[in-house]
């Protein structure tokens, strides 16, 4: 049982973190020969025949389009064997040979940091955007059978470079702790060289890497363009880790219409609109009327011509983010900040919080 890392092994932890983080955020063109070698190796490692055909796509979305064109020729997916089975096997091997203390040390210093940026930010937003665009395409297609088939394929993806968080954890033990985890060798090569892929029995469809990937303070962010973009222009727009529309991301702050907050239902997106435009300009442009003030809270009314019950918003400062304000809609009948706070906290009357979060 491995109970403690040597000083040399500890010194290598940051190197593994940075190396695998580099895989996950890489924007270089795919290394296709290495990726195809990794695909064949990944199949062989779980006892499968390598795919007869490897098809390249320019983005995960185009992978699904190709899958749709092939229809039922790729109906036999092998994702569970290629990815899930490997993850389960190596997890069992490591847990039998490494103490919890060492596992936690490696995870905290290597994998968690890669996961926070790659999986929680980039991969999750790409997945959300792929799902969103597929749903839109499904709505617009006549043939429901084909539409449903494409939609279902989303769950068959392995994530290539975006699998780098969990692969970094096992790669360290494989390479530096004499624990034989050869099952991951093919997946590491794919993570090192390409994007998402759809593994099937005789065909594997694999995507290029994103050619744009921008983060700010470890959060997906680009004010003025896409935060993620693939070679076919499939894009994700995000501000401070929040997925937004192309309009919100690309429109200069002085041209962005403050009235967007009146129709935006998502509180985080609304916060980013306010953050980009500036709270004072929002209030000025919307000609807001102050109804009540209480500490850092202000109850505002936004007069709208022809509307008897003008919308009301509680302006509040974010206690964990400096100089960041939220505008949260409240019912028309609420006339005080305390009443608004009681409403948002699902209380009959305002009560002093024990702690602000």
Task: Provide a concise account of the structure shown.
With 357 residues, the chain is α+β, with helices and mostly antiparallel strands. The chain contains 13 helices and 14 strands.
Structural class: alpha+beta
End-to-end gap = 42 Å
Q: Rounded to an integer, what's the Rg over CA atoms?
A: 25 Å
What are the segments in which pLDDT stays under 50 over at least 5 consecutive residues? 141-147
- Strand order of the biggest β-sheet: 11-12-13-14
Tally of distinct domains: 3
Number of strands: 14
> Approximately how much helix is present in the residues?
40-55%
Q: What is the helix/strand order?
A: HHEHHHHHHEEEEEEEEEHHHHEEEEH
Give the biggest beta sheet. 4 strands, antiparallel
Mean pLDDT: 89
Keywords:
357 residues; alpha+beta; 3 domains; 4-stranded antiparallel sheet; 3-stranded mixed sheet; 13 helices; 14% strand
Topology summary:
Elements: H1 7-25, H2 32-45, E1 53-57, H3 60-70, H4 79-97, H5 100-140, H6 144-152, H7 164-176, H8 185-193, E2 197-199, E3 203-207, E4 212-213, E5 215-216, E6 219-220, E7 228-229, E8 235-236, E9 238-239, E10 242-243, H9 246-250, H10 260-263, H11 267-277, H12 279-285, E11 289-294, E12 297-301, E13 312-317, E14 325-330, H13 337-344
Helix pairs in contact: 1-5, 1-7, 2-8, 3-6, 5-6, 5-7
Explain what the structure shows.
The chain has 357 residues and is an alpha+beta fold. It folds into three domains: 203 residues, no CATH class; 36 residues, no CATH class; 85 residues, no CATH class. Helices cover 48% and strands 14% of the residues. It has 13 helices and 14 strands. The protein has a four-stranded antiparallel sheet. Strands 1-3-2 form a three-stranded mixed sheet. A hairpin with a 5-residue loop joins strand 7 and strand 8. Helix 1 packs antiparallel against helix 7 and helix 5 runs antiparallel to helix 6. About 2% of the residues have low confidence.
